[in-house]
Amino acid sequence: MKTIVEVKNLVKNFTVGNGFFTALKSVNLEFEKGEFVGLVGPSGSGKTTLLNIIGTLDIPSEGEVVVLSKSVGKLNPKQAAQLRKEELGFIFQNYNLLPVYTVFENVEFPMLLLNMSADERKERVMETLKWLGLTDKVKSRPAQLSGGECQRVAIARAMVKRPSLVLADEPTANLDSDNSHNILQTMAKLNKELETTFIFATHDEKVIGYLKRIIRLQDGKVVEDNKLTPNP
Description:
10 strands; 7 helices
């Protein structure tokens, strides 16, 4: 399988007062195309920091992170934004939908930055909304949707440009058990059908049954890295 993310001797420090806090300590990992993997650990373990660096939203203090053959620490802001725009999808626990936009407009938004015609954008949005079972919500606004529907819109927005890599930060944190399972089943289906790599940051035990690999972090270090057979 093709390696799409390499993490090499990664250290991340944050300034705290006159000193600093080390959030990640000599982390070494590789992620392959088509993986469905979770960074698992309690708050403060470093999982979100690692996800942010992989997503080019932050840079290493030491070491190197290579995403799709590009070294994150060597990208200027414009290059990092270009990589995010073209190859990465993000799913957050708070959905981050634009409240004045319809479902269609929220999902279309990432493609406005790409060189696509209006007809191409419409076709891609409608195809993606069909995958997520949202074709009857095209004209609805976020305030008219349930939490589960909002998260499905967020997934559609992340998937509409067919990214190579989707980064999901606590995507089930604001959902009840039924909605959590529905969302995870949807993402597992997209992972299988499109071979999109998914990397989660989570401490939600409900997520674990769906993962093909679990990387446990504690105090900024990888303490366990296991490949699994997910539940059917």
